[in-house]
Design brief:
There is one protein chain. By secondary structure, the protein is of the alpha/beta class. It has a single domain, classed as Rossmann fold, CATH 3.40.50. It is 41% helix and 15% strand. The chain contains 11 helices and 8 strands. The protein has helices at residues 10-19, 52-59, 74-90, 106-113, 119-125, 132-145, 157-166, 188-197, 209-232, 253-260, 283-287, and strands spanning 39-43, 48-50, 64-69, 95-102, 150-154, 238-243, 266-273, 291-295. Strands 2-1-8-7-3-6-4-5 form an 8-stranded mixed β-sheet, sandwiched between helices.
Length: 298
């Protein structure tokens, strides 16, 4: 999930992704697959340890690979980079899609990809996330150096903010809004959303329907951006980076993408921070996706 859609709830939204991971005691592990002692990779179906290369082999025929993250986990971001490189070795014509860049910044991003503007101009003109240089720029540069497209997938924050305060009707027909939004306050995704919010003292005394709609606007925007690119470029792999709440359990953006492209082959990697020992992973952890990254907490 990205940053807060209104100032009073910044901390709350920022915790939703992280709250879905259980707290665990840190335990040391040895060097694993050259990734250092901070991460281990598991096939979620078998719970057997695997590698980035084996994961890439398993995902090679996908149309879309979701790499769900805990936003500020350095180890997780390093794994994303390694996974993207491994996937490119097998599917060199892939595209990169990002929750971290908003749709109204696509033209600015494209100018940067074409070397028409420099890093400083990109940072000045686009709404780049904190720690962009450390966490996301290496992956984006990987795409840039290979001449690959990078999709600014997310809805502009000002629109999401209006939805959270005024509801969906307030932004109907606005440029950069998804063409359709599903924000029914029912079902597993909504229940998980409320569960995450339930850790906050204010969760029980307010109507969260518009706030949930703001979350759904982001999911539908990203799903639509991916679907539109796939429709225009059949056969291309899209690797999408997002907060894991948007992709875990095949919900959020994944669910909205499936509703738009039922035949799409989708693979999901997720992460859980804390212990690197699989016996400490929860049932929820193993259900998050096809591959589970157990990473050092941060």
């Amino acid at each position: 999930m990205d940053h807060q859609v209104n100032n009073s709830l910044i901390a709350l939204l920022a915790t939703i992704t992280l709250s879905m991971a259980s707290c665990r005691t840190l335990e040391p592990v040895g060097d694993v697959f050259g990734l250092g002692p901070d991460a281990r990779i598991f096939d979620a179906a078998t719970m057997q340890e695997t590698s980035i290369d084996a994961m890439a082999d398993a995902f090679v025929d996908a149309d879309v690979v979701f790499l769900g993250e805990e936003h500020d986990n350095d180890v997780g971001h390093s794994l994303q980079h390694e996974a993207f490189v491994a996937l490119l070795a097998r599917r060199p014509d892939a595209a990169l899609s990002l929750e971290m860049v908003e749709r109204d910044d696509q033209a600015t991003l494209d100018r940067w990809l074409a070397d028409e503007i420099d890093d400083a101009t990109l940072a000045a003109e686009a709404r780049l996330w904190p720690k962009w240089d450390e966490h996301y720029l290496p992956v984006v540069i990987e795409a840039k150096e290979r001449g690959l497209p990078v999709i600014a997938g997310n809805v502009p924050r000002p629109l999401a903010s209006r939805v959270s305060k005024e509801g969906l009707a307030a932004v109907a027909g606005e440029e950069h809004m998804p063409r359709s939004v599903e924000a029914e306050t029912a079902g597993e995704y909504y229940e998980r959303f409320l569960t995450a919010l339930g850790t906050h003292p204010a969760a029980s005394d307010r109507d969260w329907s518009d706030f949930y709609a703001a979350q759904c606007v982001k999911d539908d925007a990203m799903a639509e951006s991916i679907a539109d690119h796939l429709a225009a470029n059949p056969g291309r792999l899209i690797v999408h980076l997002c907060g894991k709440f948007h992709s875990d359990f095949g919900l959020g953006t994944v669910e909205r993408l499936r509703s738009r492209m039922p035949a799409a082959r989708i693979a999901i990697a997720s992460m859980a921070s804390g212990s690197r020992y699989p016996e400490n992973a929860t049932d929820d952890d193993w259900a998050r996706g096809d591959t589970l990254w157990l990473v050092r907490a941060q």
